[in-house]
């Protein structure tokens, strides 16, 4: 019965079309379809018009210089991102407007006006300069979602020191790898962070990450949970307390004049190899790309309260909690904790409390809300909401409909936004005053963006690979320290096209349906995890001879990590060892990579040429009937694995 209704839904889903509500259209920032035609007739002209909303100290002399695959946008322009996100608003009515409304998990709150933000950012910028950080020096930030995170990143932008933010859920080892790759001289962390009432030992991890040989000279520590509570240990001569440094620091700090192509930040993301890539974003194009998409896609109005629930440790937080919104002079909400702490209505309580108008979250969160039940959102006043967004993974139509009905009150348009760490800005999304939406599709490319779906040969097709045909302002410029990897990963599969790593199809209406990754990258709760990374973490354990990791369909997470492991002689696949291996992966990478299932096997199913047959492993993990097994070197391997899953 359940299967039947699912199939029915799949059949019906393409027919469900939602036109933008008339009253929304009337007030929308973009409500004339000519915006698409104008942008495709003159793509660079379109982006030049978007750049008019950004203040340059010195004008650029060319919109784009394209030496494929290396792009320069707004060539020779000089500007500062922090100046654009803060200073220029002080000359307007926005001076005393809330820039950041922050709520901590325990319920403490801070509101920073633009003037407050200006003062705090300048003070911390001066702190860093005093510690010897100069333009071009990399700074690693490993903080929870607290105001100091926003302040630190904007302070980096102010002095031209690229930041590399490492999500607080990553392990000490992951942090060390990222510090070493970026050769950061400064690390900013906190004594701890709050997560569902308990303390995440950030400082303990940070200590391990910089132990022994490390480029880090100083560690700045924000006291978030209290030094005593967190057991944080301060190392003399290396570790300094944020609030003490800030006490004596001046609130006047000249912003550095940056070239459009100077690096703004590095953000590490998982790819097809064991080592995460440092995705490099620069100054001018990134700001133009994020600010313009934020204004049009979220239909931002002067008095809106905008909330994106992502963590700033991911690209969504960089582009759509901080840079895009603040460049637009918005009020952006930042929340530290989990959605179910202390109760399962925490998000709706925040919407009610601050009168949130625009709400942007991930499908995995929506699926959790669905599971918790409608009583939670129904107990709160959500009438301030006027626009909803999603990001991170394909949204299943059932979750879209639930979001539409129970959060959006059937009146709010939903923007399903497709993009990546590498694209920096949203690439495919409805414009809420123009685009008809259908649950499950991110619809059409943003004006000025050219994407296509192509077959193996790179010919336009209705099903195949999602590619981008021409450069866009916020595109990654390279992989930090590895331009060859940049070329081979993104620009070699299809000659002059950017390869996204996603599969997609196009329907009769021209809507693009992103189907998920076609490479060895998993999407667990909207977070990217490389199968190779998890495999290296597993073989790092003394008991493991070989490991193969796949993504298994998961009701809430979208995908869950499943691992197939062969053990070295003398080890036995016990429950204890299974628990130990799961914990080992969490320790090596972070809790988000912890395998949901581990299957022990005497051997892994391989083709005669020695390739692990992942498709088969996925079938086994999901308990499906096996597809073609004729290429297997040893069919009995699979039989044994199947019987294990039956147990
Ligand atoms: C912004 C972000 C990128 C990958 C991407 C794709 C998946 C993101 C999506 C989506 C379908 C959407 N993805 N948004 N798939 N519909 N609206 O999530 O960046 O962490 O780099 O992940 O996420 O597979 O390739 P990132």
From TrEMBL:
What positions does the domain Acetyl-coenzyme A synthetase N-terminal occupy? 34-85
Q: Where is the AMP-dependent synthetase/ligase domain?
A: 94-472
GO cellular component assignments = cytosol
Query: CDD domains of this UniProt entry?
Result: ACS (cd05966)
Which positions does UniProt annotate for CoA binding? Answer: 195-198, 316, 525
Q: Which reaction does it catalyse?
A: acetate + ATP + CoA = acetyl-CoA + AMP + diphosphate
| GO biological process, alphabetically ordered | acetyl-CoA biosynthetic process from acetate
Among its keywords, does the record have Lipoprotein? Answer: no
Keywords, alphabetical: Acetylation, ATP-binding, Ligase, Magnesium, Metal-binding, Nucleotide-binding
Positions that bind ATP: 392-394, 416-421, 502, 517, 528
Give the AMP-binding enzyme C-terminal domain ranges: 533-611
Q: Does the keyword Magnesium apply?
A: yes
UniProt-listed InterPro entries: Ac_CoA_lig, ACAS_N, AMP-bd_C, AMP-bd_C_sf, AMP-binding_CS, AMP-dep_synth/lig_dom, ANL_N_sf
How does it get modified after it is made?
Answer: Acetylated. Deacetylation by the SIR2-homolog deacetylase activates the enzyme.
- Which top-level enzyme class is recorded in the Swiss-Prot or TrEMBL entry? ligase
Q: Which cofactor does it need?
A: Mg(2+)
- Cited function: Catalyzes the conversion of acetate into acetyl-CoA (AcCoA), an essential intermediate at the junction of anabolic and catabolic pathways. AcsA undergoes a two-step reaction. In the first half reaction, AcsA combines acetate with ATP to form acetyl-adenylate (AcAMP) intermediate. In the second half reaction, it can then transfer the acetyl group from AcAMP to the sulfhydryl group of CoA, forming the product AcCoA.
What family, per the record? Belongs to the ATP-dependent AMP-binding enzyme family.
Q: What protein does this entry describe?
A: Acetyl-coenzyme A synthetase
Organism, by scientific name, is Metallumcola ferriviriculae
